[in-house]
Amino acid sequence: MDDMLKDFVVEAMDLAVNVEEHLLALERDPNNKETLNAVFRSFHTIKGGAGFMNLPALVAACHLTENLFDALRTGAAPVTPIAIEAALQASGFVADQLTDLSNGARPEQLASMPDSLERILVNAIEGKGDAPPKAAPVAAPAPAAVAAAPAAAAPVAAAAPTSTPGSDGLDWEAMFISVTPAGTYTPADKPAAVPAAAAAAAPVVAAAAHAPAAAKPAGADAGADAGADRREEKVQEFRAASAPAKEDSIRVDAVKLDALLEVAGESVQAANQAAVLLERLLQFKFEGPAATLMATLTETLERASRYSAELQRATLATRMQPVGRLFQKFPRLVRELAKDLGKDVELTIEGAETEVDRVVVDSLYDPLVHMLRNALDHGVESPEDRLAAGKPSKAFISLKAWQEANSVMIVLQDDGKGMDPNALRRKAVQKGLINENGAQSDEEAYQLVFLPGFSTKEVASSVSGRGVGMDVVKTAVEKNRGAIHIDSSLGHGTKFAIRLPIELSIVPTMLVSTSGAALALPMAVVQRVVELPDNFMNVGGAPVLKDQGRPLPVRSLASSLGYEACSEKVGIVIAAPQPYILAVEAVDGTADLVIKPMTAISVDGITGTARSAEGELVLVVGLSFLMDGCRGTLKVAA
Known about the structure:
The chain is of the alpha+beta class. It contains 21 helices and 19 strands.
């Protein structure tokens, strides 16, 4: 794909996603003129670029949809369910074409516009229902058929749509041709049949165009000249409006940004190590020229450290993207899936402006789709069942995002029937995924849904029931060094809470040591440090310590990771769904570490490695491992 086509595809895909969002809003508020105008502008913009790129199917679909919304916004056609459905189908067709292009398809390989899409758009323009339009009459040779079939029933040319003045009196296609390089866009021959409205509006001009010069009525030349002047004036205005504006941004390949971030992180690490070495050197006494050199070196290293930190922050900012880019794809998915399942569901979105690492945004689409499908199929009841349970017939699903300390929280919640922990245990035992004594607590029972092959559906459907999906969610979240927690109330609904680091490669950590190993804990779950006594209270055979008036279990980091036992006298209060105190040998401070994922081996509880300021290798404990109470992933029964 050449650069120009690539830029068009990226920009058009953004417009197509916004169109879907506007259409779903329009379904709730059909009289919103601003939304109608926004959809019209989006299809008009895509059509212009598609024409320049010689993509006839896109041009044809966008032109018909543009005509539809021109009729809707002027009141010539009503905003009906069939109009919304037609526009959604057109939006889907546009998105499919753009996706094919982004996947490497050549323009000539793209599919043509389906007849069914043309029919539903024409019906919507005419204000009809689902019935297909009557066959358009065959156009007779010009000029006999000047007042032939209505505009809406005229066939759409596959190569390029017929150019006719819109309701605002402007011939947009002619204007587009006037501002594009010669030879880049060739309109199809205009059919002899023209819309009746257009023929009635300008009969004299139409007749004069085919009559001999001597037969023109007096004053016709003057009128034609005046019309030409007005047309030229409009074209000049259009050219001025279409002039390229000064660009405030450029497109940069994501791979280059990743490489830049890695270099920035390494420069910070190098600056930190240099600062440690300088601190050790300053313990010695320097005199004369050596003292002057040391002072200059100190100042230079401080400046280098400051600039490397600024470079790191600036580079991180280039990778941050709002989660709204991801969330805006879901309203239509929920609408269509709820329709297929015969359920009445409304999705609300909050915190779309929350920013997170681009890699996280890109990797969360599939997990959130699985969670939404699970909520719609398993969690939300049918309207009849909800009314029988004393609930409103319409169900609600909320998707929220917000920043919390150094993490981003994404919460998906429904007001459905909730999860029965006893039923989850029975199903897991029946499938042989756990033994009779497994998953004793409700929290552990909820985690069973993440096991591969687990499903409570007796019969698989097109939506769920095959035992795949939710295990993908947990895997994707943990791959991004995140954690997921489930909270459910039988009869009231279920909440999935995902905690993710704002930035993946550089993580604020607390450095600890235990059993001779240097470890780092993500600061996102660290609340405070406490001193541990020699003896603990015991509850059920497990050590417990009161912290701020509440009893918390004490767990050894060494034993959780399989290290040798040691004297652990320092406790760290971990902010997990079930808070606890993590016992370590010593706390060595805090540091922002550049995390390198472990690819050669997999160690339960360890998510990556890093280098401390002293150059020492540090193992980074996984966020999900800490959130789960220092317990590894549930194991399938042997």
